[in-house]
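Technical annex B. To support the medicinal chemistry partners, we prepared a structural model of the target in complex with 2-phosphoglycolic acid, based solely on the information shown next.
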Amino acid sequence: MRKPILAGNWKMFKNTQETRELAAGLKSKVAQAGDREVVICPPFTSLAAAAAAIQGSSIKLGAQNMYWEDKGAFTGEISPGMLKEIGCSYVIVGHSERRQYFGETDETVNRKMKKAFSSGLLPIVCIGETLAEREGNATFKVLERQLREGIKDLAAAEAKQLVIAYEPVWAIGTGKTATPQQAEEAHAFIRKTIAGMYGEQMAGEIRILYGGSVKPDNIKELMGQADIDGALVGGASLEADSFSKIVNY
Ligand code: PGA
């Protein structure tokens, strides 16, 4: 049984004060969600405030990015050790906005993902095709490349803990969700590709989240699909009311 994960990617929203308010609101609303994991990923500057606010709850903390070195002259970067110390257990790696605006590639994704594991953080590795790629019938080709390059060279113990987020770029922040059938088709393909890389058993344990305009009114149908094990939620994770409805789908 794969335990569902409902993760909120806050992107560049919520200062410390707003973080305390949102986290407190969530704490009271998602307390019953024992059969699923709830993760919030605030901006770096709000991680400490979030860690304090969720204390005593089962909500877990994640970061939105990290660098692959432990320390050094890397101005502006944050190390995995810093994230661990502040209370993170997850880290998002290779979000499409990082690939699009900040030059991340399958190679940097692979480095970060491996470093996350060796530092005791669980990576949520994001993959997904653009609209042009989908319309050009290249969706599977792109997903396969992102997986073969992005998640290669993992030890078995790591591979089974991997979390993938399938986020079609055309569905992010656009209000255009993939249909449950489109999402399931991609998720099944992703699991098959991972089976080719790490074996059937491993692929059966890996959780694959869907992301892209997930809302309270579409989460249930998405979660009804065989290969969808949770969601990575952007916009709808910024209000306690909508995110808790998603968590309690
Ligand atoms: P969205 O973002 O839910 O606002 O579409 C999802 C994401 O980028 O992770």
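Notes passed to the chemistry partners:
The chain has twelve helices and eight strands.
Residues 180-198 form the longest helix (19 residues).
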